[in-house]
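Lesson 9: reading folded outputs for more than one chain in a single document. The general rule is that every protein is listed as its sequence immediately followed by its structure tokens, and records are never interleaved. Here is the first one.
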Amino acid sequence: MDLNMVSYLAELGKLAFSPEELEQMAKDMTSIIAIMDTVKEIDITYDAVADNKNVYLNDLREDFSVPSFPTEKILQNAVNDENCFVVPKVVE
């Protein structure tokens, strides 16, 4: 990245740099762009078969329902008797 572009970007960002800082900024921005060009080369196409190759439906556990705890037992020590818990206000 050349100094004219860095100077223009600094002007757009309302930033003031000394000539030495502009040169350092140009070097830093050039290295950042080089890194991003390297990242851009990575293949990120999604392959559902390859991404889920270790998951088989036969290996999953069986899903079954069980009776829940009785509501009367849970609410036996509750202050309110309208089938709900009353908790103190946390946020005002």
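And here is the second record, again sequence then tokens.
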Amino acid sequence: MMKFVKNYMESIDGVAVYPIFSLLIFFIFFVILFWWVVTAKKDYINKVSQFPLDNNDKTNITS
């Protein structure tokens, strides 16, 4: 199966661009995510971190 995929991919002109493009998207996403985490306000982080522990929900979840 991999031999078929390899032969098929080698026949496409400019196929080497796709892995570079994928790596670039991956890298940019995590740089932006890191920038957001570093610049996030501490009071916002504290407020959001308390959501799972908040017992004042008006919805009643029953199993």
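What the second record shows: The radius of gyration is 23 Å.
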